[in-house]
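Side project, low priority. Logging it here so it doesn't get lost.
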Amino acid sequence: MSSRPFSNWTSTDWARASVLTLLVTWVPPMFRSLWTDELGSYWVVEGSLQQAISRATLVQGQSPFTYVVMWAWNRALSPSDFGLRVLPVLFGLATLTMLFSIGKRLRGSAAGWYAVAVACSLYEFRAMVVNFRPYALALFFFALSTRLLIAWDDKPTARVAIAYVFATAAVVWSAFYFGLALVSHLLFIAIRRREGSRSTWPRFATLLGSSLVLCLPLIPQLIWLSSRADALQFSGTPLLRQVLGEVFPFGMAAAWVAVVLLSGLPDRTWRRRSDCWLTASIFLAPTAIIYV
Protein backbone atom coordinates (compact mmCIF):
# COMPACT_ATOMS: atom_id res chain seq x y z
CA MET A 1 0.00 0.00 0.00
CA SER A 2 1.29 3.45 -0.85
CA SER A 3 2.54 5.69 1.96
CA ARG A 4 1.51 8.85 0.07
CA PRO A 5 -1.22 11.11 1.52
CA PHE A 6 -4.76 9.92 0.81
CA SER A 7 -5.33 12.75 -1.67
CA ASN A 8 -2.47 11.42 -3.81
CA TRP A 9 -3.52 7.78 -3.86
CA THR A 10 -4.13 6.20 -7.24
CA SER A 11 -7.01 3.97 -8.34
CA THR A 12 -4.85 0.93 -7.57
CA ASP A 13 -4.22 2.16 -4.02
CA TRP A 14 -7.91 2.63 -3.36
CA ALA A 15 -8.80 -0.69 -4.98
CA ARG A 16 -6.42 -2.48 -2.61
CA ALA A 17 -7.81 -0.55 0.36
CA SER A 18 -11.35 -1.46 -0.68
CA VAL A 19 -10.64 -5.18 -0.96
CA LEU A 20 -8.74 -5.23 2.35
CA THR A 21 -11.52 -3.32 4.14
CA LEU A 22 -14.17 -5.66 2.73
CA LEU A 23 -12.30 -8.78 3.85
CA VAL A 24 -11.74 -7.42 7.36
CA THR A 25 -15.24 -6.01 7.98
CA TRP A 26 -17.54 -8.33 6.00
CA VAL A 27 -16.11 -11.83 6.19
CA PRO A 28 -15.83 -12.43 9.99
CA PRO A 29 -19.50 -11.55 10.77
CA MET A 30 -20.69 -14.06 8.16
CA PHE A 31 -19.53 -16.94 10.38
CA ARG A 32 -21.47 -15.83 13.45
CA SER A 33 -24.78 -17.36 14.49
CA LEU A 34 -27.98 -15.66 13.41
CA TRP A 35 -29.07 -12.93 15.80
CA THR A 36 -32.65 -12.19 16.91
CA ASP A 37 -33.87 -10.23 13.86
CA GLU A 38 -32.26 -12.68 11.45
CA LEU A 39 -33.96 -15.57 13.23
CA GLY A 40 -37.22 -13.72 12.67
CA SER A 41 -36.46 -13.57 8.95
CA TYR A 42 -35.58 -17.25 8.92
CA TRP A 43 -38.88 -18.09 10.61
CA VAL A 44 -40.73 -16.18 7.88
CA VAL A 45 -39.08 -18.13 5.03
CA GLU A 46 -38.69 -21.59 6.54
CA GLY A 47 -42.26 -22.69 5.67
CA SER A 48 -44.23 -22.68 2.44
CA LEU A 49 -44.38 -19.75 0.03
CA GLN A 50 -47.89 -18.91 1.22
CA GLN A 51 -46.70 -18.91 4.83
CA ALA A 52 -43.74 -16.69 3.93
CA ILE A 53 -46.00 -14.10 2.29
CA SER A 54 -48.47 -14.20 5.19
CA ARG A 55 -45.81 -13.95 7.89
CA ALA A 56 -43.95 -11.14 6.10
CA THR A 57 -47.15 -9.15 5.75
CA LEU A 58 -48.95 -9.80 9.03
CA VAL A 59 -46.10 -10.44 11.47
CA GLN A 60 -43.07 -8.60 10.12
CA GLY A 61 -45.22 -5.79 8.74
CA GLN A 62 -43.13 -5.54 5.57
CA SER A 63 -43.53 -6.07 1.85
CA PRO A 64 -43.40 -9.78 0.93
CA PHE A 65 -41.26 -9.03 -2.15
CA THR A 66 -37.88 -9.41 -0.46
CA TYR A 67 -39.04 -12.36 1.64
CA VAL A 68 -40.12 -14.23 -1.49
CA VAL A 69 -36.58 -13.81 -2.81
CA MET A 70 -35.18 -14.99 0.53
CA TRP A 71 -37.63 -17.90 0.59
CA ALA A 72 -36.49 -19.03 -2.87
CA TRP A 73 -32.84 -18.82 -1.76
CA ASN A 74 -33.54 -20.87 1.35
CA ARG A 75 -35.52 -23.47 -0.62
CA ALA A 76 -32.96 -23.81 -3.40
CA LEU A 77 -29.90 -24.26 -1.19
CA SER A 78 -31.13 -25.11 2.33
CA PRO A 79 -28.11 -23.11 3.53
CA SER A 80 -26.48 -22.78 6.95
CA ASP A 81 -26.26 -19.52 8.90
CA PHE A 82 -23.29 -18.62 6.71
CA GLY A 83 -25.15 -19.61 3.55
CA LEU A 84 -28.19 -17.52 4.45
CA ARG A 85 -26.00 -14.44 4.68
CA VAL A 86 -24.45 -15.11 1.27
CA LEU A 87 -27.61 -13.80 -0.43
CA PRO A 88 -27.53 -10.30 1.14
CA VAL A 89 -23.76 -10.17 0.68
CA LEU A 90 -24.24 -10.78 -3.05
CA PHE A 91 -26.64 -7.84 -3.15
CA GLY A 92 -24.10 -5.86 -1.14
CA LEU A 93 -21.41 -6.59 -3.73
CA ALA A 94 -23.82 -5.49 -6.46
CA THR A 95 -24.37 -2.27 -4.50
CA LEU A 96 -20.63 -1.69 -4.35
CA THR A 97 -20.54 -2.08 -8.12
CA MET A 98 -23.16 0.67 -8.40
CA LEU A 99 -21.24 2.88 -5.97
CA PHE A 100 -18.07 2.43 -8.00
CA SER A 101 -19.95 3.32 -11.18
CA ILE A 102 -21.41 6.43 -9.54
CA GLY A 103 -18.05 7.57 -8.16
CA LYS A 104 -16.31 6.92 -11.47
CA ARG A 105 -18.96 8.86 -13.38
CA LEU A 106 -18.73 11.84 -11.03
CA ARG A 107 -15.01 12.07 -10.39
CA GLY A 108 -13.05 9.22 -12.00
CA SER A 109 -11.87 5.70 -11.11
CA ALA A 110 -10.03 6.76 -7.94
CA ALA A 111 -13.23 8.28 -6.56
CA GLY A 112 -15.12 5.12 -7.50
CA TRP A 113 -12.79 2.93 -5.47
CA TYR A 114 -12.81 5.50 -2.67
CA ALA A 115 -16.60 5.27 -2.49
CA VAL A 116 -16.33 1.49 -2.22
CA ALA A 117 -13.72 1.74 0.56
CA VAL A 118 -15.86 4.20 2.55
CA ALA A 119 -18.99 2.05 2.14
CA CYS A 120 -17.16 -1.05 3.35
CA SER A 121 -15.87 0.89 6.37
CA LEU A 122 -19.27 2.12 7.54
CA TYR A 123 -20.80 -0.04 10.25
CA GLU A 124 -24.32 0.81 9.07
CA PHE A 125 -23.56 -0.37 5.54
CA ARG A 126 -22.04 -3.62 6.76
CA ALA A 127 -24.97 -4.15 9.11
CA MET A 128 -27.30 -4.04 6.13
CA VAL A 129 -25.44 -6.37 3.80
CA VAL A 130 -24.09 -8.98 6.23
CA ASN A 131 -27.55 -9.54 7.62
CA PHE A 132 -30.33 -11.94 6.59
CA ARG A 133 -32.84 -9.08 6.44
CA PRO A 134 -34.50 -7.05 3.62
CA TYR A 135 -32.01 -4.17 3.83
CA ALA A 136 -29.42 -5.39 1.31
CA LEU A 137 -31.89 -5.70 -1.55
CA ALA A 138 -33.41 -2.27 -0.83
CA LEU A 139 -29.94 -0.73 -0.63
CA PHE A 140 -29.02 -2.23 -4.01
CA PHE A 141 -32.11 -0.85 -5.71
CA PHE A 142 -31.48 2.56 -4.13
CA ALA A 143 -27.94 2.62 -5.53
CA LEU A 144 -29.20 1.36 -8.90
CA SER A 145 -31.95 4.00 -9.11
CA THR A 146 -29.41 6.69 -8.18
CA ARG A 147 -27.08 5.59 -10.96
CA LEU A 148 -29.98 5.56 -13.42
CA LEU A 149 -30.99 9.06 -12.30
CA ILE A 150 -27.50 10.32 -13.16
CA ALA A 151 -27.69 8.60 -16.55
CA TRP A 152 -31.15 10.07 -17.20
CA ASP A 153 -29.94 13.55 -16.27
CA ASP A 154 -27.03 13.15 -18.69
CA LYS A 155 -29.17 11.80 -21.52
CA PRO A 156 -32.93 11.39 -20.85
CA THR A 157 -33.72 8.40 -23.07
CA ALA A 158 -36.88 6.31 -22.79
CA ARG A 159 -34.90 3.18 -21.96
CA VAL A 160 -33.15 4.79 -18.99
CA ALA A 161 -36.40 6.41 -17.84
CA ILE A 162 -38.25 3.07 -17.79
CA ALA A 163 -35.38 1.41 -15.92
CA TYR A 164 -35.41 4.22 -13.36
CA VAL A 165 -39.15 3.86 -12.82
CA PHE A 166 -38.90 0.14 -12.05
CA ALA A 167 -35.74 0.46 -9.93
CA THR A 168 -37.29 3.26 -7.87
CA ALA A 169 -40.48 1.27 -7.30
CA ALA A 170 -38.34 -1.72 -6.30
CA VAL A 171 -36.76 0.39 -3.53
CA VAL A 172 -40.16 0.78 -1.85
CA TRP A 173 -41.22 -2.81 -2.57
CA SER A 174 -38.02 -4.07 -0.92
CA ALA A 175 -38.41 -2.00 2.27
CA PHE A 176 -41.10 0.64 2.76
CA TYR A 177 -39.00 3.09 4.74
CA PHE A 178 -36.24 3.12 2.13
CA GLY A 179 -38.57 5.28 0.08
CA LEU A 180 -37.42 8.12 2.34
CA ALA A 181 -33.99 7.94 0.70
CA LEU A 182 -35.54 9.02 -2.60
CA VAL A 183 -35.83 12.55 -1.19
CA SER A 184 -32.16 12.87 -2.18
CA HIS A 185 -33.22 12.44 -5.83
CA LEU A 186 -35.65 15.37 -5.51
CA LEU A 187 -32.91 17.57 -4.09
CA PHE A 188 -30.49 16.45 -6.81
CA ILE A 189 -32.92 17.48 -9.55
CA ALA A 190 -33.59 20.80 -7.80
CA ILE A 191 -29.87 21.62 -7.69
CA ARG A 192 -29.34 20.44 -11.26
CA ARG A 193 -32.12 22.74 -12.44
CA ARG A 194 -30.27 25.69 -10.94
CA GLU A 195 -27.13 24.52 -12.72
CA GLY A 196 -28.88 24.61 -16.08
CA SER A 197 -29.78 20.96 -16.53
CA ARG A 198 -32.28 20.01 -19.24
CA SER A 199 -34.12 17.87 -16.69
CA THR A 200 -37.45 19.51 -15.91
CA TRP A 201 -39.76 19.04 -12.95
CA PRO A 202 -42.68 17.80 -15.08
CA ARG A 203 -40.52 15.11 -16.69
CA PHE A 204 -39.05 14.00 -13.37
CA ALA A 205 -42.50 14.11 -11.74
CA THR A 206 -43.72 11.79 -14.49
CA LEU A 207 -40.98 9.29 -13.65
CA LEU A 208 -41.60 9.48 -9.92
CA GLY A 209 -45.36 9.31 -10.41
CA SER A 210 -44.99 6.21 -12.56
CA SER A 211 -42.95 4.59 -9.79
CA LEU A 212 -45.66 5.45 -7.27
CA VAL A 213 -48.29 3.85 -9.49
CA LEU A 214 -46.30 0.61 -9.34
CA CYS A 215 -46.40 0.89 -5.55
CA LEU A 216 -50.18 1.25 -5.29
CA PRO A 217 -50.70 -2.44 -4.37
CA LEU A 218 -48.80 -1.69 -1.15
CA ILE A 219 -51.28 0.93 0.06
CA PRO A 220 -53.61 -1.48 1.93
CA GLN A 221 -50.69 -2.85 3.91
CA LEU A 222 -49.39 0.64 4.69
CA ILE A 223 -52.85 1.61 5.97
CA TRP A 224 -52.93 -1.51 8.12
CA LEU A 225 -49.47 -0.72 9.50
CA SER A 226 -50.52 2.84 10.36
CA SER A 227 -53.36 1.39 12.43
CA ARG A 228 -50.75 -0.46 14.50
CA ALA A 229 -48.58 2.61 15.02
CA ASP A 230 -49.33 2.87 18.75
CA ALA A 231 -48.27 -0.72 19.32
CA LEU A 232 -44.99 -0.14 17.50
CA GLN A 233 -43.95 2.96 19.47
CA PHE A 234 -42.08 3.21 22.75
CA SER A 235 -43.24 5.47 25.56
CA GLY A 236 -41.24 7.28 28.17
CA THR A 237 -38.20 9.56 28.14
CA PRO A 238 -35.01 8.15 26.58
CA LEU A 239 -31.75 8.24 28.51
CA LEU A 240 -28.93 10.49 27.31
CA ARG A 241 -26.79 7.51 26.37
CA GLN A 242 -29.64 6.15 24.25
CA VAL A 243 -29.95 9.46 22.41
CA LEU A 244 -26.19 9.60 21.83
CA GLY A 245 -26.27 6.02 20.63
CA GLU A 246 -28.69 7.04 17.88
CA VAL A 247 -26.95 10.29 16.94
CA PHE A 248 -23.33 9.10 16.98
CA PRO A 249 -23.55 6.93 13.85
CA PHE A 250 -24.74 9.97 11.90
CA GLY A 251 -21.68 11.86 13.07
CA MET A 252 -19.45 9.01 11.94
CA ALA A 253 -21.09 8.94 8.53
CA ALA A 254 -20.79 12.72 8.21
CA ALA A 255 -17.11 12.48 9.11
CA TRP A 256 -16.53 9.91 6.36
CA VAL A 257 -18.35 12.09 3.84
CA ALA A 258 -16.23 15.05 4.89
CA VAL A 259 -13.12 12.99 4.22
CA VAL A 260 -14.48 12.13 0.78
CA LEU A 261 -15.18 15.75 -0.07
CA LEU A 262 -11.90 17.10 1.28
CA SER A 263 -9.61 14.41 -0.11
CA GLY A 264 -9.51 16.01 -3.55
CA LEU A 265 -10.08 12.91 -5.70
CA PRO A 266 -9.01 13.15 -8.46
CA ASP A 267 -8.64 16.95 -8.21
CA ARG A 268 -9.50 19.75 -5.83
CA THR A 269 -12.79 20.79 -7.41
CA TRP A 270 -16.15 19.20 -8.02
CA ARG A 271 -17.67 19.45 -11.48
CA ARG A 272 -21.05 20.43 -10.00
CA ARG A 273 -22.49 21.06 -6.57
CA SER A 274 -25.15 18.48 -7.36
CA ASP A 275 -22.43 15.83 -7.68
CA CYS A 276 -21.22 16.72 -4.19
CA TRP A 277 -24.76 16.46 -2.78
CA LEU A 278 -25.56 13.17 -4.47
CA THR A 279 -22.31 11.58 -3.29
CA ALA A 280 -23.01 12.63 0.30
CA SER A 281 -26.61 11.42 0.16
CA ILE A 282 -25.60 7.95 -0.97
CA PHE A 283 -23.76 7.47 2.32
CA LEU A 284 -26.00 9.46 4.64
CA ALA A 285 -29.45 8.32 3.50
CA PRO A 286 -29.04 4.56 4.17
CA THR A 287 -27.16 5.33 7.37
CA ALA A 288 -30.09 7.41 8.61
CA ILE A 289 -32.77 4.98 7.50
CA ILE A 290 -31.39 2.02 9.43
CA TYR A 291 -32.13 4.00 12.62
CA VAL A 292 -35.71 4.92 11.65
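Brief comment: The longest helix spans residues 81-107.
Revisit when time allows.
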